[in-house]
Structure to design on (425 residues):
């Protein structure tokens, strides 16, 4: 049985922890709003980019000579995985969920005897992966210094990918990030960016495929556009990720605050009981002392 | 019938400009400037460094762009660009910095003719901005 003093100390310590988690929750909520706004603002760009590429790839007739970024190298030997995580912890299952998703993908690649290369973006992902997959990690990027997500950061990652592709260092590239559904739910996503997956929306090509004028020709536009698209996709993933991170942190901190509250309640009851027990004990001692006289 | 159409300029971080009352836009496409009026046929092209001029009934706006994609379809002109600013609030320091950066790039040996051309062009455009 802990003494009264111990209990009192524990209560204060839990209370101050609760203050911290509460503050973190507030901060996360404020940041979440901003991150969500940013994600929404960034959406038109990536949507338009997707549209243009869809239109372009439809009008490409000569699939053989199409840019490799679109159709792939024809092989699937080397997989490059970009794992986007947060730079900070204390955000619930956010990082772990991405890592879990990525790990199952890694295991699949390794069991198929293909070569795996990993680039981690964000320090938490690197920390969690380096133990098991150290030899596969080719690069580790972190944007701890930049306060907000900006496009030039995404562009840096994009340039690294393009450079590696041009050197034929990989055939397939996939990115891992958390898609923001709502504050409570974030879905870990795996998205292939090289070669571009074309399986979506094949229905809505309502006959008007070839009425675009291209200047210069399609191939040249595509080869100019595809590298940009990679940066855009990464940027989009980063935006989704940051919104998810804040959402996840908010929920986690909310839970922590509530748990701390419960703990304080329980400890307070225990404290009062033992205080009363001590009083009763003393009373009995006095009374029985008086009786014996 | 009105001869107005829509323009959307977006950059990755946000929607930069959205108007529905422009009658002409001149864009610095990679093979030369294109003037776009209403009911232009659908076109996709990309940009070289230059000035986008947007003419609406009341005013003329000028923007400097570095690169980007343009798409015109259904009387909507979409410009996707990662670097753009309004000439009105052009930052002198930023412009001269960009010039010196481009010139530094030019002095490297390992660039091909096309890139050299683009960079030269960029320097020209930027210089014309800083003179104004």
């Amino acid at each position: 049985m802990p003494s009264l003093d111990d209990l009192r100390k524990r209560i204060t310590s839990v209370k101050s922890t609760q203050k911290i988690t509460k503050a973190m929750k507030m901060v996360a909520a404020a940041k979440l709003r901003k991150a969500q706004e940013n994600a929404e603002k960034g959406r038109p760009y990536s949507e338009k980019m997707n549209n243009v590429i869809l239109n372009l790839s439809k009008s490409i007739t000569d699939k053989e000579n199409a840019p490799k970024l679109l159709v792939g190298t024809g092989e699937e030997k080397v997989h490059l995985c970009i794992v986007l995580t947060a730079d900070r912890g204390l955000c619930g299952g956010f990082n772990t969920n991405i890592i879990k998703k990525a790990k199952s993908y890694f295991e699949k690649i390794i069991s198929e005897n293909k070569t795996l290369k990993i680039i981690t973006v964000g320090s938490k992902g690197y920390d969690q992966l380096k133990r098991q997959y150290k030899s596969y990690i080719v690069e580790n990027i972190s944007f701890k210094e930049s306060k907000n997500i900006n496009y030039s950061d995404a562009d840096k990652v994009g340039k690294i990918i393009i450079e590696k592709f041009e050197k034929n260092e990989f055939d397939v590239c996939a990115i891992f990030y958390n898609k923001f559904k709502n504050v409570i739910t974030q879905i870990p996503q795996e998205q292939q960016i090289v070669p571009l997956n074309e399986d979506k929306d094949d229905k809505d090509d309502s006959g008007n495929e070839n009425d675009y004028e291209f200047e210069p020709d399609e191939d040249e536009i595509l080869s100019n556009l595809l590298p940009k698209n990679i940066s855009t996709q990464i940027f989009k993933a980063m935006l989704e990720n940051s919104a998810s991170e804040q959402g996840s942190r908010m929920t986690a901190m909310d839970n922590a605050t509530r748990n701390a509250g419960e703990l304080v309640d329980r400890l307070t009851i225990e404290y009062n009981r033992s205080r009363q027990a001590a009083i009763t004990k003393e009373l009995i001692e006095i009374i029985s002392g008086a009786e014996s006289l | 019938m009105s001869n107005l159409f829509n323009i959307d300029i977006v950059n990755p971080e946000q929607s930069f400009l959205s108007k529905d009352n422009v009658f002409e836009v001149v864009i610095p496409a990679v093979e030369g400037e294109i003037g776009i009026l209403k009911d232009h046929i659908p076109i996709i092209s990309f940009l070289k460094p230059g000035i986008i001029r947007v003419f609406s009934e009341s005013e003329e706006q000028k923007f400097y762009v570095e690169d980007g994609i343009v798409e015109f379809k259904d009387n909507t002109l979409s410009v996707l660009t990662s670097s753009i600013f309004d000439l009105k609030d052009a930052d002198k320091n930023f412009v001269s910095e960009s010039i010196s950066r481009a010139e530094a790039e030019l002095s490297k040996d390992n660039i091909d003719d096309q890139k050299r051309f683009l960079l030269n062009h960029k320097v020209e455009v930027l210089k014309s901005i800083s003179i104004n």
User: Anything to note?
Assistant: Chain A touches chain B at residues 38, 41-42, 44-46, 48-49, 51-52, 55-56, 150-151, 154-155, 211-216, 221, 224-225, 228, 231-232, 235 (CB under 8 Å).
